[in-house]
Design goal:
A hairpin with a 3-residue loop joins β2 and β3. By secondary structure, the protein is of the alpha+beta class. The N and C termini lie far apart (48 Å). The protein is built from 5 helices and 4 strands; from the N terminus they run βαββαβααα.
Length: 220
């Protein structure tokens, strides 16, 4: 970076880092390691079709599966009307950044094709937070898989009236529910998500109860 002659030094009106217009604040980058999952939020552009319907959901499921790499792994996700929440494992910061850029670009192209349009789908940079404790991981899994309850929707009912995970999430593949056994689990070819690191696959189960299908995110 360079400064023009005579423009550096002292206070200037409007100087300094500019406020973002997309609502995502600048913050110091957290250290990314393969031991700590990340909670990621991606918001769609205003005025577009809502994401939470079967055709768009199918696109998301397909693109999640295609995004999986050795160094970048999506372990849980949920689809809401205007945004997605993901839990992601990555080996390092470069793998995380490259994996997220690839996933968002691929998903945007596929949704534009579905909608018969062109242009931006996810104009804001995704927001991410490193989950450093087992408790934070447990809370994040509940937040992601039961996020639809937070938005005022009723617990999903199966064909026979039994309670099931939200079908617009990866909850059907999750093996940590109380009273629900997934038919397909991570590691099987047709499963879009993969098994997470120790904290998200094993560690939280040793310190916390299995997750209720009715557990409201944010509640203890």
């Amino acid at each position: 970076m360079f400064h023009e002659v005579g423009t550096w030094g002292g206070h200037r009106e409007g100087a300094g880092r500019k406020a973002r217009k997309d609502g995502v604040a600048h913050s110091p980058r957290e250290r990314v390691t393969r031991h700590d999952p990340m909670l990621v939020t991606i918001k769609r552009a205003r005025g577009l079709v809502n994401l939470r319907y079967p055709a768009a959901a199918q696109v998301v499921f397909e693109r999640v599966m295609l995004a999986q790499k050795a160094a970048f792994r999506i372990t849980h996700f949920t689809i809401q009307d205007t945004h997605l929440h993901l839990l992601v494992d990555a080996d390092d910061a470069a793998a995380f950044s490259n994996g997220m850029r690839g996933f968002v670009a691929s998903l945007a192209r596929a949704l534009n094709k579905l909608w018969g349009r062109s242009g931006s789908v996810f104009p804001e940079r995704f927001h991410s937070r490193v989950l450093k404790s087992v408790r934070a991981v447990w809370n994040a899994i509940k937040y992601v898989l039961n996020n639809y309850l937070k938005h005022g929707q009723d617990v999903w009912q199966g064909p026979g009236g039994q309670r099931e995970p939200d079908q617009f999430s990866s909850g059907r593949y999750f093996d940590g529910w109380q009273g629900y056994v997934p038919g397909v689990r991570p590691g099987v070819l047709e499963c879009p998500v993969v098994r997470g690191c120790w904290k998200s696959a094993v560690g939280w189960k040793r310190r916390h109860a299995l997750l209720l299908l009715t557990a409201l995110p944010g509640a203890r």
